[in-house]
């Protein structure tokens, strides 16, 4: 039985980092005319009401999206992401947070496709109703990891895969890596983005070293910490591992991260970086 609900965490600093990276990847994919597939293995509910009991209980979005969405001095590279957030909050108040499927829905073109999977009994119907009128999207209640076997390579031979597990189960760490290895065997030119939380640094190190030893090249690691590593206080940082990133992504993230870190963490604690885990 899955108990994780993303509504407690929507719009927090980890979502800001994840969705910034995703928006830059999707924007870069659109520079070529050929359509592509966006595969979201752990899609969540799609839309999150920030005044819900869950979101109010943690208030995490207040130290995330609320700190940046209306800033006039935000770097231009954040525009694709922030424009989607503003689109869902046109009245000028921050009411909704668009999760990864809605971010992609807004950024994709008419010919691109979305394949979204979500297992949770309550979140799946919410996700499905967001997309019932969108002919580009297939939405399934199915295991996300399996999709990297069943849906790859895409017919268009271009694709972006987001793997964003809740890490509610310890096996999520290994399952993410195995799914990437299986997907990569079938579709070596795809862009794969795996989100990870830093709760215990040792666990992240194990995941990174499994990827380093997989033989896969061109692996970029992007991380933003709001506190120093600790073995006591829950999630202190989060990151994205991107395989086959668009060529500009490292440079874009290194340009963006100082502003993002400073704005999300005014105390200056923690760190932010984008660096090659495995180069070309
Ligand atoms: C971190 S949330 C996803 C958030 C979403 N990607 C976003 O950025 O807005 C993780 C989701 O994965 C779902 N989930 C957990 N295990 C899954 C699995 N094996 N396959 C598909 N979905 C799963 C959970 O119910 C949860 O909604």
Instruction: Give, in order, the helices and strands.
Output: HEEHHHEHEHEHEHEHEEHE
Instruction: Report the count of strand segments.
Output: 10
The fraction of residues in strands falls at: 15-25%
The major sheet is characterized as:
8 strands, mixed
CATH level-1 class: Alpha Beta
Radius of gyration: 17 Å
The CATH topology:
Rossmann fold
Cα separation of the termini: 41 Å
| Percentage of residues in helical conformation | 25-40%
The stretches of 5 or more residues where confidence is low (pLDDT under 50) are none
- Structural class from helices and strands? alpha/beta
Categorize the overall geometry.
globular
| Named CATH architecture | 3-Layer(aba) Sandwich
CATH superfamily: Vaccinia Virus protein VP39
Number of domains: 1
Ligand list: S-adenosylmethionine
